[in-house]
């Protein structure tokens, strides 16, 4: 698997989990949200290790900063980590641009 493909797959998985978590929080299903938060952290850890293989400690702000730059530079997408509604749209935009449609 090509590294960018692996990175994109982890980003898709991360955004899917973040989106699902936002939905269960809105429904006040906090036990499900806690499980999804744990899943989110596991995927973030994997993504961090792929991006920063030499790093000793996980740093969430470094990952978020990298993700913002990566999406803008590679896909022209402005990523707002504070808006869960944009997550599905972001995944869709990436996939369309990969196919050369957008």
Description:
The chain has 102 residues and is mostly helical. It has one domain. The chain has four helices and no strands. It is globular, with a radius of gyration of 14 Å.
Q: If helices are DSSP runs of H or I spanning 4 or more residues, what is the number of helices?
A: 4
E-strand count: 0
What's the assembly state of these chains? single chain
Main beta sheet: strand number and arrangement?
Answer: none
Approximately how much helix is present in the residues?
over 70%
The class by helix and strand makeup works out as mainly alpha
Q: Extract low-pLDDT stretches.
A: none
Total of domains: 1
**SSE pattern:** HHHH
Apparent shape: globular
Mean pLDDT figure = 87
CA radius of gyration:
14 Å
Assess the beta-strand content as a share of residues: under 5%
Q: Could you give the distance between the termini?
A: 24 Å
Structure, briefly:
With 102 residues, this protein is mainly alpha-helical. It has one domain (3-98). The protein has 4 helices and no strands.
Helix and strand arrangement:
Layout: H1 3-26, H2 30-51, H3 60-75, H4 86-98
Helix pairs in contact: 1-2, 1-4
Q: What brief labels describe this structure?
A:
102 residues, mainly alpha, 4 helices
């Amino acid at each position: 698997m090509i590294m960018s493909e692996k990175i994109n797959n982890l980003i898709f998985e991360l955004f899917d989990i973040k989106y699902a978590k936002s939905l269960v929080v809105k429904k006040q299903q906090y036990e499900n949200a806690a499980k999804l938060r744990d899943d989110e952290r596991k995927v973030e850890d994997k993504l961090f290790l792929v991006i920063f293989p030499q790093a000793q400690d996980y740093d969430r702000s470094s990952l978020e900063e990298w993700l913002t730059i990566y999406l803008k530079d590679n896909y022209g997408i402005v990523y707002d980590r504070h808006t869960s509604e944009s997550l599905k749209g972001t995944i869709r935009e990436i996939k369309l641009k990969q196919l050369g449609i957008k």
